[in-house]
Amino acid sequence: MTSNREPSDASGSSRIDRRRALLGMGGLAASTLAGCLGGASSGSGSQSGDTLPTPVQGDPDADTTVTVFEDFACPHCQTYNLEVLPTIASRYIDPGKIRYEHYDFPVVNETSWRAASAARAVQKRAGAKQFFTYAKALYQNQSRLGPDTYASLANDMGLKGGAVRKAAENQTYRQTVEANKQTGRDRGVRATPTVFVGDKTVEATVDAISSAIESA
Length: 216
Description:
Blueprint: E1 17-19, E2 34-37, E3 56-58, E4 65-70, H1 75-93, E5 99-104, H2 110-126, H3 128-140, H4 147-156, H5 161-170, H6 174-186, E6 191-192, E7 194-197, E8 200-202, H7 206-215
Parallel strand pairs: 4-5
Antiparallel strand pairs: 1-2, 2-6, 3-5, 4-7, 7-8
């Protein structure tokens, strides 16, 4: 069977699986959480003239904001989304105790950028709630990210898979993704996932995030 996984760009950074150390630079606190580091090449692709808003869950007006910078091709982001986020959602997002924000921060390879554009195409067509549903599906299918997967997952949600596939291939929402990554750089982000509770970085674990939320 032919794999749908996209080849990584030879000029892009390879996936690095090691512990992050001393992320104090740029305002980041030290962390022992393993993460994906690097700088996926900017590549090419058409850019949408508009920049999509930040996808938000929970109470948009909550006093406490949790902000997460992610890469759909990063295995550590997959672990965070499938093993940590569900508990944070049940404790804090669903009851409306926090504002939860997603930012794209592609670092692994060109798949990182294309998957982000696919997810943003879903956001554009169906809103933030469906964006997060699609994002979870991307992580559940991380081993086979590629055009066919982007389309089939969108079809499963009742959306036009062909349009989502095209947005991924053309990187239609690259302007949005670029803006997200610059926001991360401005906040000192160097790896994914990086989690902020307010202005403080915390490890991407249930205990660390919960403790920071309760303290806030």
